[in-house]
Amino acid sequence: xxxxxxxxxxxxxxxxxxxxxxxxxxxxxxxxxxxxxxxxxxxxxxxxxxxxxxxxxxxxxxxxxxxxxxxxxxxxxxxxxxxxxxxxxxxxxxxxxxxxxxxxxxxxxxxxxxxxxxxxxxxxxxxxxxxxxxxxxxxxxxxxxxxxxxxxxxxxxxxxxxxxxxxxxxxxxxxxxxxxxxxxxxxxxxxxxxxxxxxxxxxxxxxxxxxxxxxxxxxxxxxxxxxxxxxxxxxxxxxxxxxxxxxxxxxx
Length: 252
Description:
Layout: E1 2-3, E2 5-9, E3 25-29, H1 30-33, H2 35-38, H3 40-43, E4 57-60, H4 69-74, H5 84-102, E5 110-115, E6 124-131, H6 136-142, H7 144-149, E7 159-173, E8 176-190, H8 196-208, E9 212-221, E10 228-229, E11 233-240, E12 248-251
């Protein structure tokens, strides 16, 4: 659901009318059609985070219904089923890895996980991880890839940027509350166009129309707990222009 539209997918053609393998879904303008009144059971789960399914929503929401064991037994897509406990376990794993997921992103400021239990008017937060500071200086450092990539063709020098970034992680589990903070020092850089890897990127663009950047980032924990390279690995990427940085971990 995004803007004024909600899109429903039915790849097996079992629920929506007049769908096919070539067109397995429907798009509805829920603002002008008052769809929330006609299909309240399907659309009410979107009524959260400021969305009321009546006015256009400046954001995007995805709903992924869990596949039950019974549905999995007859599914043509996957035989994998999921329970609520499976999802809560995924939430817990994501919470413990959340800092690592945010380290090298350019625009995401926080990750939050909610649970919406029966009888509750709105979902409740169970896990969160966010940047400790959101000032313009930090944003400027996180956008280094964009700044450096704009002049890579003319550059003959390696460009390097470094900065510190703090994180706050919180868990709200029943009566228990956990809050922890951590700080990482990040060094990121781009090799010049005439370097070996820069030459490789240029050749890939000319020969295969594959637009790459010789970009690498590393991060180390500098919190009081001690110096720790996370997750004891080196982060390196050659990323497609316009798609951001794809982080790949190579264990040391």
